[in-house]
Amino acid sequence: MLSTAVGVWYVQDRKSSRAEFVRDVESRWLEANILCNQAQRVRDKAAQWETLLTASQSALDRAEKLLNGRESQAPDELRSRIQETPANT
Asked: Where are the domains positioned within the chain?
């Protein structure tokens, strides 16, 4: 009985950890995307444009760092979005 309870807890904990991981990666991607879109709107203001692009790339780098070694835990769709993000091209 105790081993069954521990097994159920372990499975739930892993699902929760995976969901948190996906949310973290998704948040970094969203941040990168928002900053990239903001940069596109201020192309005529070089300093602001560069700052926003740098911040966007930093957020994207953090998303990729989170994914590194754990790619199989992220949905294919999320991995594709990260690869297709303008700051990544």
From this structure: 21-88
